[in-house]
Design brief:
mainly beta; 2 domains; 6-stranded mixed β-sheet
């Protein structure tokens, strides 16, 4: 009996030790990056340090602490752009932002490790709208939505004084291409400052929304451009915003969207940002008169009103630098605002608007590691959650490691 008890104790100690850490050994190439794939786990990326090939080897460490697959992709460039999302069972590595011989190329991986290397013809798309100049296309955004990968291109047409706004939607399960042309942007009004840039607003299973803010005839409008994953138009929505004192802000997604890889961040400066979430429409703006982030939306009577409370803040400058950042987490939207030294944050969810007591350090790592936001320990470099329990690892000098160890 004592021997049996001793054996059970040894098994218990071994099991506890087994789950106190998880190790992923190096393969053919050294590691260079870890990125969280929300709801799936973490992807561990490795590549040839000599640079003789562009191959990238990818391991998935899942939420059970297992490594179900490792795959190699063969991009045409050294640094393909990773597009990842809370809402998709697919990840993408996009080779080129400018068409190469009329094509945009990318690699797709699904949650089971299936790899598709493919491309699409942008000339074929713009020909359907009467244009034949694919090299004039400017890629503004790539969004990994629940049903499709969405590319937003601008096509300046100087002879007509307009910018065509073209959205290409490629459905995940079959890589079939659909497209939709939104309303054209008047170059004169844009230069005058009455029309702001078109920004991604949100998406669900059936609807993809972009939006832009405009001021016409002393009226403030948030205009939503909606279409389905198959490029079918959705009834346009708009919010008429009451009198406000907005300051132009840098708008930044803290998800790994395509805009993160565009160097000229001035392209995303706007007086505010439209949001589509849980079939509701919102508008976020930094108000210069109060130094507050104000969130507008529809009340129970379907009238636009301010939905959050705001106490007037004192900024450290008359013309403070202003920004609005956001990221999705478990179906909710976390929004932060900076106006000079004033930092505020909110959560938008199915129940409405909630003020958050967080600081800038809490969101430092969320773009590559959203689980870091959920843990109280902010000293670790990377957090991986296994069966609801956070494990962590140091991401310094990954290329020197023979294995990556995640510890409780």
């Amino acid at each position: 009996m004592k021997n049996i008890s001793f054996l059970l104790l040894i098994i218990l100690i071994s099991t506890t030790s087994l789950f106190s850490q998880v190790e992923v050994p190096k393969g053919k190439y050294p590691f260079y990056k870890i990125v969280e794939w929300p709801n799936q786990g973490s992807i561990l990326l490795a590549k040839d340090p000599s640079g003789s090939t562009n191959d990238i080897y990818i391991n998935l460490l899942d939420t059970e602490g297992e490594v179900p697959w490792g795959k190699t992709i063969y991009p045409k460039v050294e640094d393909p752009k990773l597009i990842i999302s809370n809402n998709s069972n697919y990840i993408y590595f996009v080779d080129n932002y400018k068409p190469v011989k009329n094509f945009i190329e990318y690699n797709q991986l699904n949650q089971s490790g299936g790899v598709v290397s493919t491309k699409f013809d942008v000339l074929q798309v713009i020909r359907s709208y009467g244009y034949t100049t694919p090299n004039d296309l400017e890629l503004m955004e790539i969004i990994n939505t629940p049903k499709s990968l969405v590319f937003y291109f601008q096509l300046p047409v100087k002879s007509e004084g307009i910018i065509e706004n073209i959205f290409i939607s490629i459905t995940h399960h079959n890589n079939r291409l659909y497209h939709y042309k939104g309303p054209a942007t008047d170059m004169k009004l844009q230069k005058k400052g009455t029309i702001d840039p078109i920004l991604f607003a949100g998406a669900d299973e059936s609807t993809i929304n972009f939006s832009y803010f405009s001021t016409e005839n002393d009226k403030n409008n948030v205009n939503f451009i909606g279409f389905s994953p198959k490029g079918e138009p959705v009834v346009d929505q708009y919010l008429k915003i009451p009198s406000l004192n907005p300051i132009v802000s840098n708008i930044r997604s803290l998800n790994l969207d395509g805009s993160e890889y565009i160097d000229d961040k001035s392209l995303f400066q706007s007086r505010g940002k439209g949001v589509y979430l849980n079939n509701n429409y919102y508008f976020l703006t930094n108000d210069i008169s109060t130094n507050c982030l104000i969130i507008y939306g529809l009340n129970e009577d379907r009238k636009v009103e301010q939905l959050n409370k705001c106490n007037k803040n004192q900024a450290n400058s008359r013309n403070p630098k202003s920004s609005i950042s956001y990221f999705e987490l478990d179906g909710d939207l976390i929004v932060t605002s900076e106006m000079g030294d004033v930092f505020t944050s909110y959560k938008i969810d199915k129940n409405g608007i909630e003020t958050l007591a967080i600081n800038k350090k809490d969101i430092e790592n969320v773009q590559l590691n959203s689980s870091s936001f959920k843990t109280k320990d902010k000293t670790t470099n990377f957090v991986h959650v296994i069966n609801g329990i956070p494990y962590s690892t140091d991401t310094k000098e990954l290329e020197k490691l023979e294995k990556i160890t995640f510890k409780k």
